[in-house]
Batch of 4 targets.
Target 1
Amino acid sequence: MMFVLRMAARETRASWKRLIFFFICIAVGVAAIVTLRSVIQSVRGVFGKEAKALIAADVLVSTNSAWMPDARQTIEHRFAEYDATEWTESVETPTMSRPADGRAVARMVELRAVQRAFPLYGTVGLEGGQTYSYALLQQHGVLVRPELLTALGLKVGDQLSIGQAVFVIRGVITTEPGRRVGGFSLGPRVLIDYDDLPSTGLINVGSRARHVLLVRVPEDRIEPLVRALRLDFREQYIGARSYRSTDDEVGRDFDRAENYLSMVGLVIVILGGIAVSSVTRVFIMQKIRGIAVLKCVGARSSQIMAVYVLQVVALGCAGSLLGILLARGTLAAIPVALGSSTSILAEADYGLSWSAAAQGSAVGILVSLLFSLVPLMQVRYVKPSLLLRDEPPPRRRDWARLGVMALVSLGLMGVAGWQAGSLRVGVVVCCGFAALAIVLQLAGRLLITLIAPLAKSPSFPLRHAVLHLSRPGNQARVILFAVGLGAFFVIGVRSLQGSLLQEFSIQISEDAPDMFLIDIQRDQADGMRAFLTDPKNHAGQSRLMPVLRARVTGVTGRETNLETFEDVRARGSLAREYTVTYRDHLEANERLVDGEFPSSPSPDPEVSIEKGIHERFAINLEDTVRFDVLGRTISARVTSIREVDWRDARSGGFMFVFRPGALEQAPQTYIAPLKGPADVAARARFQHDLVEKFPNVSVIDFREILETVRDIMSKVTLAVTVVGGLVLFSGALILVGAVAMTKFQRIYEAAVLKTLGANTRTIAKMLLFEYGVLGSLAGIVGSLGAVALTWGVSRYALEIPWRIFAAEHVGGVAVTAVMVAAIGVLSSLDVLRHKPLATLRAE
Amino acid sequence: MIELREVSKTVMSGSEPLTILHPLSLQIERGRFLAIVGPSGSGKSTLLGLLAGLDAPTSGSVSIDGVDITKLDEDRLAKLRGEKIGFVFQFFHLIPSLTALENVSVPIEIIGGRDARRRAATLIEEVGLTGRAHHYPSQLSGGEQQRVALARALANDPPIVLADEPTGNLDTTNGRHIMALLRGIHQRRGTTVVLVTHDAELAATADARIVLRDGRVVETIDAGAGRPFAVPSDAHQGSDRHAAEPVQVESE
């Protein structure tokens, strides 16, 4: 044992410089895991501190329409029964806001009207140390998010028009209880007094408003109350949930996020592992004589293996430690990067999580060990007789090695499963990696075969460069894999981004509508038509479509029979609230798949369903679907199945379209897709004038959304590009490592070539060509992978036309080639500098 | 005692078998100094490898102190080498990542011996390298490296030292120095020394010599007996064999 320990220490002392890439590769991966996990845990901590503040109450009861008196009675009865000590009401609705001074700007906001007791838990954070109190809202006061002030050019003390009312801005919100982080929102939050809501005129029949009751109840009554309310309203659209269920939900979200992100880290560690494997293989090859000597003086194979395994563990530990330090540095930089951000993310402390550090180190050490075991098995083949006579190791099937390979694969799946929090995901990731590795390897091999004719090129450096790629012991395959994988990530993601952005741009092309008006009341319809056709408003083509909000409460059909709403709820998204319409014609973006689309009104309710509904829920022609349309039950016969081209938003997209005649009398609003004025100032003026005249109507501006999408996408792309860049960086490290490991052989070859008359320039050219060819091949492998990725994702996940961005691919290949060539040549400067005589004498 | 019975070695040269050592029997008594002589490719190093269990014979058996080493597995062979055999090679074969002292202490550490460092230091002193103990092989001259290799060979005080062309890579002065050390060890410790060399002058200083050519013994000379003996063709008849001879050879 002492021998093993001492030898491991001596070997590490002697070879740490050569193995430095080993632990840098591990360090980068470990740093990624530790940083990502720590960040998530820090952010989660902010939530964990005030779980109740997440929903600002113990229990939350909500509905999407105004409270019906009988429902309200039941709820209050339950509150009394379960000893609710306090409750308060709030209403949330998206709407337009604009400066009261008449400037031609308007902005969509998410309005929340609250009462005195709000929030029951947590507090509203305000900028500048201002303390929240209900008095700030009373008498038409309003609290707003800072981004609204920027968008409208307002400041605290200015007046803001919402609907028909004017409010004074009394403060700027930094944090707000009951607001989900990362949830999609149509606009910045605006907080007003519940009592001022009627003055805005926003709440009408059919308006998109969420009515919420926040309740405080004793801890032991929380769950019974939620259960009782759910039972009371199982057939109605009133939901009840406790802070605990929210906590669980958020907790699950965080678990998923943490596990997903740590998979990204794991991918980097696995790449590091591939580098480890390659470095170990070359390292052992260089140690063969030393191993033979040890065997000659009495060491057993197992003792020598133990020496190197211990060395690997030591390097894995060192790499992990370095990784933790890197993570610590990155984490310290996050608050600086967030600066004065008011986001809830800025509240996290971003400390190093010790559990993340422990997990990261464990993964680092395990991956080092697993990836080095197979190459370390070579120790067993080294015969001491090698010291007397060179002879190749016997070629035979090595069952022990195959067994270790199987164990290593299982181990990796275990590590991946552990990191992903699901063995299935672990297996999928490992198999995906293996499949990707095989594909990249095959592609690399194919490309090497394809360029083989260049070995007959008249250019001496090019000829040798090509020959080097297929000589024994070369590192081409591992470099192709690692660098190719990095290129694949970066090119693939950038192409997808381009594809998606182009898709959005097409949607708002010249003739397509680029604005959507919602919540137009029935009595406003004629006025709105007049407004839109008035030439001085510069609106393009437009039309009004009636819309109603409906839920499916039952299905009676050939394949599907859903008796109650409970049954429907069991079908997942079928239970959600749908926006429906009625008309007597198909729209341009629709195609009839089956049945007949009605062309005349009928008093008997008939409905046309979208193909997706037909396929997912097995609802067929002649089935009857029962709807609840704002309290009215309507049973409609399915008479046709349509396919909607969702990419064409011109005419909207509806899952259910009714035959005219049945819904005309139901409460409804109108929506209007239209082509807005072209220039920015005219658009702002148009929105302002429209909201001025119809204060309750909301304007969704596609151009603004496109900007937001573009912004979000560039952030996502940046994030994925950073990950791809890290992968590429790992690839570069592997490359540097591979060059360093084979340098001695290179130096010898260069010495021989120099004595045969090659000058330094020729040898430099050879290196440049060799790494340039290798880089180009890696770039092409990555680019081909990216083509496959974008095709698959475009076709199956995003359902958008597949596009090739030649610039991304050509640029990607060129950058990869230049990068690999530069790194290759720079890491081989020693080869150029060495004097041939000294080298040959040393041999 | 080392005993070889009908030992031969055949290797594959491409797809053709090539016999590099023809069947040979040999006994080396404890405390002898035997030289194996012959030109390059005559099978000297192969014979040495078989004696040490570094290589397995194609046929025949090799015994050391009555133990048939051809029946031992790799680990037992390694143990036997660690305890009973010291090696000196033409190309020194020191471990480049270890200092001179560490190179010498490794065999002691492998068998779990005590005071490895102190014993290694004594041996370093014995071969005249005090002051160079903490140098790496790359910082030592060829002669110095070979002296370290010699010290390493003696680390576990083995009864047998096998030396494969120990002066082949050294100048004359260093070569003489190494030979003097080897002879000193043989005389002082009573160690059995088997020396492989193609240098007839060096071989002449041994107690006995075996001359190999093309994998066959062509001559055996016992300096103690003062006469040549055992040419291969009649060696198996035992005509030149002397019952008291410390080295006995049979070869076909």
Note: The radius of gyration of chain A is 34 Å.
Target 2
Amino acid sequence: MSNALEPRATCAIAALVVLVAATPLGAQRGQDGGQAATPRQAAPVDLTGYWVSVVSEDWRYRMVTPTKGDTGGVPLNAEGRRVAGEWDPSRDAAAGEACRAYGAPGLMRLPGRLHITWEDDRTLKIEADAGTQARLLHFGGAAPAAAADRAWQGISNAAWDAAQGGAASAPRWGSLRVVTRQLRPGYLRKNGVPYSEQAVLTEYFDLHPGPLDATWITITTIVNDSKYLTQEFITSTDFRKESNGTKWSPTPCTPN
Amino acid sequence: MRIRTFAVALLLVSAVPADAQVSLVGDWSSRVHEDSTRNDPRIGEFGGIPFTPQALAHADAWDESRLTLLERQCVPNGAAWAFRGPAQIRIWEEKDSTTQDVVAIKTFIATFSQTRTIWMDGRPHPGELAPHTWQGFSTGTWRGNMLEVKTTHLKRFFHRRNGLPQSDRSIMTEYFIRHGNDYLTHISMVEDPVYLTEPLVQSQNFVLVANVTPATYQTWTVCLPLEEIVGRPRGVVPHHLPGTNPFITEYSTKFGLPQGATRAGAEALYPEHQIRLSQIRAPAATGTAPSTARAQSQTEPEIVQVASDVYMIGGAGGNVTVHTGPQGLFVVDAGSEMSSANLAAAIRGISNQPIRYLANTSADADHVGGNPVVRALGQAVRTRENREEGASVIAHEAVLNRMSAPTGQQPPTPVAAWPTMTFPKGQMDLAFNGQAIQLVRLPAAHTDGDTVVFFRRSDVVATGDIFDPTRYPVIDLAKGGSIDGEIDAINWLLDLLVPGEKEEGGTMVVPGHGRVCDESEVMEYRDMLTIVRDRVNAMVEKGMTLEQVKTARPTFEYDPEYGASDAFVEAVVRGVQVRR
């Protein structure tokens, strides 16, 4: 009997190497160490709980509604600037579109609190008290919605970008990646800085520790919208975990 | 055999730690889509920073033209701020040539051409007395897909470049997270016990760019300070007296914000602040700031190497400087009497060479108390005229006058502690260990006998208590000190100091107390002294009494850095009154 591997065996082992190396940690082991884990079980980090936005950036654009045409920092093209210059909050209110600044691309920038829970084993739910909005992040792919179903929060597909390898007992780290489409046109900022129905929103949720034993989520938000933007619009927003929901205070959308 | 090889390969691949699977290497370009005015904020644009009332007072006094001072023109961005600027950044790894382990991750920022090192080899952070730098001292650890970086030893800079200061006691935690191939999110969390009431957490984003030419990084390769304000008298530090900054409300007015809306500090960071905006009041610039001035006492001396042949010993009273060389040791100051045994052991830990010279920068007990012990460790260079035992003790003659007494009277210090070699005029020069050593008397500063010692080849200055970054200067009026003399002395010192390449290091400064410094700390000290003097002068001109001046707290924003100010303010008032 020869020690040499048959070609078929060689390929099989090589494939196994590739598979092992490429499989996210969460999928390599279920919580019970056996069966394939659900997205909830495979979560490398726990994003659930109440979170408060700490407005240390873009303070003037977030804590107060800027004046019309004040679009500093947003890479608007000429059409985007034109549309921003036509912002009319009373018109939005009359049209029943007071929530235009509360769509997914702008929602995370609004001062407020998030309440993150698992809706089920494959759906993470993010509620925002600003505008009383709710987002559903679907793992494993969500059915694409028809154009008529466009919504402020769009359709979000989520996946874990989990760190690979390491001992089973080691701390787990990783990002939550969310891609949102089917958005109803709205505002990146409350003063009418627009995004269109073409906008695609990509987000990364990163959990990390902070000083004074605090836990933080930083949400990196990338908006692609060739209709109004000259390049992707990238921001990152920082939330600190709160011990409970006593400060949770849902408010309605306001147009300005 | 081949089966075993594959099995081992399989094991290896599956066991690769997460650490090895993320690389930040590349050229990254910032996307300044938030805080778009971050590089050039307006006066009064304070929203978003959890500042203390002292920080706000500092910002209210800030005058942009202070950046025209020669010492400030080339100051680079500190690490706690640098990634906030519009930045082109290159990140690379330095690896051990044998093991290929990553020893350090390095970043180069085009703005001011700053290179930063993040040590990945587990080395500890330096001690408390080690010098601070613009980039600080950073160590990194991978946490899954995130690089966690801890940075200490930062220089004083700004939390926002409109006068909101960042103290040199700040520490920073950062996370670098690569998303996909093209995006890098950088999170910075700065704790500043002096000027922040809670950590400042900010995040910024970068996009990977390819085919970057060298020119992209050649924006600030050389900075040469020039006289920008022709005819400005020497020693002027631009600032606004309290309550007189005419520009402080412009920002709120321009953007339709309620006056005071941006002056609420940490309270303004949270959602609840939105509904309070119309009722915001600026925090009162009164109240006593908790003094966080550095502890003065240390039980064990700490040795810091300042140059190849110069060391500083801290924690033995006043700082002690030790210069080594083939001819023996030249020591500046001898610490306190109580610490002299520990100091002697520390000196012998540096070198067993004989101490040839001991120079005293003043007659203060925490600088001359150890004279007898330190002197006994040495042996003067013997000459036909000098057969003394022990090291030669050099000081300005005013120091000897303070330590001794006329015949028949009780001297304040024992004879064994007295200088054995004095110089009566402004300067004494020696050639020793192949370098020029200059002792320069700076009259009427801390006392009338203050001497700085300049090691010219080593490029190190021992200042004595003329410069003490741990506290306000002790201006001993009874011993001939004065605020104007102190400021003159500090300005003289600034003229002497030359910062190194990229404004790091250069002429190093051993202060009377505290850590090793360079020009930037002396500059901050000069600015503080001048601003406080100018404020007191304005108050005295208004006819305010000493008690009224103290009550007005002209040192308010500096108290958390320098501690108790009553004696200093009193000395300034007396000095200003004498001048009038």
Note: Chain B touches chain A through 61 residues (CB under 8 Å).
Target 3
Amino acid sequence: MFLDFFYLLREKGLDVTPTDWLTLTEALDKGLAGNSFTGFYCLCRAVLVKSESLYDKFDQAFLEHFKGIAEMPEIPPEFYQWLANPRGSESMDGQKHQSPYRTAEQIEQMLRERIGEQTCQHNGGTYWVGTGGSSNFGNSGAGQEDGIRVGGQGHYHAAMRVAGERRFRDFSEDQVLGLRQYQMAFRRLRQFSGETNAAKTELDLDATIQATSDNAGKLKIEYKRPRQNTVKLLLLIDSGGSMDEYMAVVTALFQAVRKSNHFQDLKIYYFHNCIHDRLYTDPTCTPGKWVESESVLHQLDGNYKMIILGDAEMAPYELLNYRYYGQNRMCGLDWFQLFQKHYPHNVWLNPSTGGRSLWHDDYWSVGSHYDLSTYDILNDKFDMYLLTVANLEKALKKLLVSR
Amino acid sequence: MQTNLTFEGSQDYVAGADLMSAVNISMALQKPLLIKGEPGTGKTKLAESIAAALGKQLIIWSIKSTTKAQDGLYFYDVVQRLYDSQFGGNDVKDVEQYVKLGKLGEAFSAEEQVVLLIDEIDKADLEFPNDLLWELDKMEFYIPQTKQTVKAKTRPIIIITSNAEKELPDAFLRRCIFHYISFPDKDLMRKIIKVHYPVLEMDLLESAMNAFYALREQRGLQKKPSTSELIDWIRALQIGGISAEEICKTMPFAGVLLKKSEDMAELEKMKQTGRGPFAG
């Protein structure tokens, strides 16, 4: 039953399984759809959709599939009573609209057409079916002498109206992240192991039993180390000028990482647009508060997981020019790649929308040697993820999985 | 055992039609009901209301971040037993006195059908919902210490609430009926408030509600005020004897609605520029 709807839902990305579908069929057998279209809509949504971020997709699929049914104007039985006695009404200030008297059949025909045309709720006005207006149809309005009062709730089309309202559009997963969501996402960065140097605080039951038996029955309690997270994280944050507009996002992510105090080690450094031979320990990138990038590479071994947080927007010469920072004959891109090689588990998180090419188009359009924007170059070299809910989860999962 | 129970809200809880339908569906299909929603939209109260409406006992299992699935089934007090064996006292051969049933175990071993509320399941560890899958399916578990199987005589009505902080594992979601309690619109909110305050001036109610919804619509708030905060606010306004006109002018007792200092600062800004609840 409704198998087309099932496949449409899967096409829209809703991952409905055959088991869910059988549950739906079972529920329909038990009469749980309540003999109304709205009840059917609620039933489908409750059984098939498992997250409010998918409600919008479900609404769209439902509208698309069942549009044909809604277009059949179902005239409630009250209509036939009213057609026999069309209700006259007076407007608030006593005016009545003059309209040529139509026969009941003509009005009914107009209603069918009008319902077919109408795509949204309407109040006021003189044409559509709705409330508070002065057309031939609707209620609570200064209607015409020969009009028809349509029921206030509109129950027959409520399901389509509810789905059409698209109330859950904001819940789809491409929304802006908040602090709490970052924290939850970062909790995923865990690899538990008992092989740490933590204090022994958990009761080790088996060892206790063994030790007690060895001790000729006198109780001897043994403790073991609790399992701890062994993930070590290196976070490199871009605090160049172009990142100012993402301050809120960066702050939230930074706070989330700091509050996730379960990392075995957490090191945070800052750079201005691009990594060079020094990394700053302070977001303002003040000279003097820095460490050598080489020493960072020596101290923090390859077991660290590296996250680079930046918008990858900078002047192309910063990234590619060998003479910009002359010390090691390495350009910015070389440094990025050196870090990438040293830390095989790495991801790049980008709070911007990606590829604005501000520098490229506006500043460097004439006489520029560089055809690609820095965003494109870095996007190519790194696993870059734009910061949305879905992407953050993907990025962190990827960070854990070994190559 | 087929029972034709239906839920239609109770005296002190107003539920939307889709919520009532989700509850009835989950009861008829005998699947757990997973409720998500903004904090303060009445998820916990829903379970209380269901239990009251159906006249069943309510068992609440409040999940903490340290909760393990085993805690819900049973707890075997080993250390007590070891100490007793060392220092005499109770008869240690009787294992049963050291095995205490958790909330899920209680729900299974109840004589009649109960309502079991698993509150805020997303607070626990990531693997917690998966650990419960078998027990939720089969409605039974085995205690090796006493060699007993605790089996549910009647399937309890299980309601699970989540604050939407974490994504729950897919295998767990498959076994549930899901419902998201969206924020009530003005009509439903009016009904909810009438349940709490049967005697309330219409002016005060309308003015407070308009200000509240206008405030919620403003961007820049870190934590939007929710239903329970509105109810508290109206109480404060009643006690303070505030009139309807004053509400739009000064928003008294805003600390009841907004709990963050950044939001209070934002409210001040709105007052300066005449936005949000201060408009018109």
Note: Chain B touches chain A at residues 17-18, 21-22, 24-26, 28-29, 31, 34, 36, 78-79, 82-83, 86, 126, 164-167, 170, 173-174, 176-180, 182 (CB under 8 Å).
Target 4
Amino acid sequence: MTTALSTPENRTAVPAHTGSRFSRVLGAVVALGLGLVAVLGLLISPADEVQGDAARIMYVHVPSAIVAYLAFGVTALGSALYLWRRSDFWDATAAASAEIGVVFTSLTLVTGMLWGKPTWGTYWEWDPRLTTTALLLILFLGYLAVRGIAAERKVRARRSAIAGLVAFVDVPLVHYSVDWWRSLHQKATITRLSPTISGIMLFTLMSGIFVFIGLYLWLLIHRFRVQYLEDELAEGGLAEAIAERRREAGVAV
Amino acid sequence: MDDAAFVIGAYLAVSVGLGAYVVRLLTRGRKLSRQVPEGRRRWM
Amino acid sequence: MWRDARLVAGKDLRVEWRSRVALNQIVPFAIVVLLLFAFALDPDRGFLRRAAPGLYWVAVLLSALVVIQRSFAAETVDGGRDGLRVIGLDPAAIFLGKALAASAVLLLLEVVLAAGVMLLYGADFGSAFILVVVTCLLATAGVVAPGMIYGALASGVRVRETLLPLLFLPAVAPVMIGATRSFEAAINHSPAEGWRWCGLLGVFAVAYTALGLAVFEPLLEDS
């Protein structure tokens, strides 16, 4: 394979970025949606009867948590399908989703702690969900560490797929064990709003969830393309180097 | 607003966190796109 | 498959017995961990005895980490891993055999550690003996099964010393929680509570053993 790296001609011919028409439209919708959620959550929705204004944090915390779990679900799905189909598509999907999942898990923890301080009086309480989320973050940092090991593409994909599956099996087990452990002395768990959440508050929460899922999709598209480019580059670079050595040795390419 | 610092802080953390990630992702994409030849960027 | 598994287990145990690393290095290491806990928590105020179940299982997990590293160190030198595959052993049997051998070593360590905790910390695990034994067996299976998967995953990688603890320790968090609560129940004479935790430990062990049997084949493919 003889592939020249970018020349001035093709650099100008095609816009060099990871956007496409679909991703631009989606991005615009999501950007508007995020603005809407901020206005709804901070200004329009009323304070919660029990938790007061701190409940406003829920409108970003709950969607972050849902997207975090969704992202790890997609990573596990991509891992399983990679082992079955051995297609680079699923490997790249799993890789892209895991990184986004780590971002949202971190945001879930930060917003959870900022909610905990005014509500519980401490930043960290051994709340079952918060504890599970913290372990989830470490499990998937481990997954990214496996991805980060330099190896041949197939070896790396296989290793990562196994690591992704093994970590995913752990999630329900961690959840149950932490839940049983903490149910001995239970306090208001983090997602609990007033029993009758309705009207504008429910609408705000639901739109937050939808907008964040849209944001996840937008990020996934871009991150997937970055992954694709990185893999292409690594492979192209290798082919290039081999061709070069062959030319040096005077072997016909 | 009660606990304004925590509420604003949480929204700020989310915006800054996501914003930084988006910027990093897009610049990474641009940098890589310039290095990979046009024929192999299929979504264009 | 059982024959292959016994073969691998026998080989691992023989290697372990001849080198005496478990006896001469891992056992002293585990005892040092027990001493360190005593230095950290004042023995005179009863902290040690109350925290004994948790400290015991932390010591077990740290020792397990060393056992797992040993189990795969033997395979990475001189291409032992490829050797196992070339012989034509079933990957699932390799998993099972290595897991059995590692479990045997770990159980031995657990007996030593239990004696140490009872002697040094004054904890009494004897009151619900059957519960304690069952907890140890299930927890050992639950620690060793993911340990073998991650051990094989990290073996042959340059960063294995740091990668293995990062992958292994958070994954066995449910075992740590379950086994500790079960031991506490045994000490507090409320075994019913402990059996519930044994259920969780059992599910964990079965899930990871099944996963290990399924996943060892792609794991041992050309590396």
Note: Chain B touches chain A through 31 residues (CB under 8 Å).
